[in-house]
C-alpha cells in the first residue's frame, strides 16, 4: 500500500502517468501481482486520480520459469562433463565452462577475450583460418579436429562440434561449441595403422605363398609369392572361389575342404601337405 500511495503522490506532483508493480490482496486472502497505473485528470473542474490495475500473474509465472531455466542452464553449463566454449565473430572467447578450464589448465580471467587461435598448435592454425569462416557460413560444424596447446605446453587432439546462434534479425550473435579429447583414440589409430603396415609388409614380402579366403572359400587377398607359385595374376585370383580355379588336385582339395570345416567349427586344423597346380596345369 505505501508504494501505491507514493505512486499517487508522484502523479499529483508531476501531473504525469505513473506505473508500478505491486501485489493486492484478494478478498479470500491470497495476493495477486498487478501493474498499477495512475494518471491525473480534471473532472468537474476538480483534479482526480484515475487508477488502473492489470493482473500480471501469468507474466510473473513466465518470468519465474525463465529465471529457473537460466539457473538450470548455468548449472548444466558449469558442470557439463565436456568442455564448452563460445566465440564472437572474430573468434575471441566469450565464455568457457569449468571442464574447459580444467582441460586447458587456465583460469577464466586468462581466457576471456583471447583469440581462440592462441590455444591451437601452430601447425593447425591453417585449419582454423579455413574452417572458422565456413563454420560461420554453414551455421554448424561436426567432428572438426584440432591439436591444442595446454597452459603447461602439452598438446592434445580434440574433436569439436558447434552451432551458431543469431539475434532477432538473424545476424550472427555467437558460437556455441563442445569438444571431446580424442588424443588416446588418435594414438590408437596411429598404432593400428603402423601395425597394419607392418603386417602388409610381412604379408607381401613373405617367400611363402599366402592366400586368404572368406568362410565361403572366396579368395579375398594373396601375396606376390602366390602369383609366382600359381602362375595367376592377383586380379585373376581375387573374388574367385578357391574350388573353381583348379589350383589343387582333387584329393588335395578334399583334404583342404575338411580342414577348412574344422576351422569353421572352431576345432584345431591339421597341417597338410598337398599337391597344387599352376595356371598352365603343371
From TrEMBL:
PANTHER family: PAC DOMAIN-CONTAINING PROTEIN, PHYTOCHROME-LIKE PROTEIN CPH1. It catalyses: ATP + protein L-histidine = ADP + protein N-phospho-L-histidine. The keyword Kinase applies. InterPro entries: PAC (IPR001610), PAS (IPR000014), PAS-assoc_C (IPR000700), PAS-like_dom_sf (IPR035965), PAS_fold (IPR013767), Sensor_kinase/Photoreceptor (IPR052162). It comes from marine sediment metagenome. Coiled coil: none annotated. Residues 69-139, 195-267 form the PAS domain. This is histidine kinase. The keyword Kinase applies. The lineage of its organism: unclassified sequences, metagenomes, ecological metagenomes. SUPFAM superfamilies: PYP-like sensor domain (PAS domain) (SSF55785). One of its GO terms (molecular function) is protein histidine kinase activity.
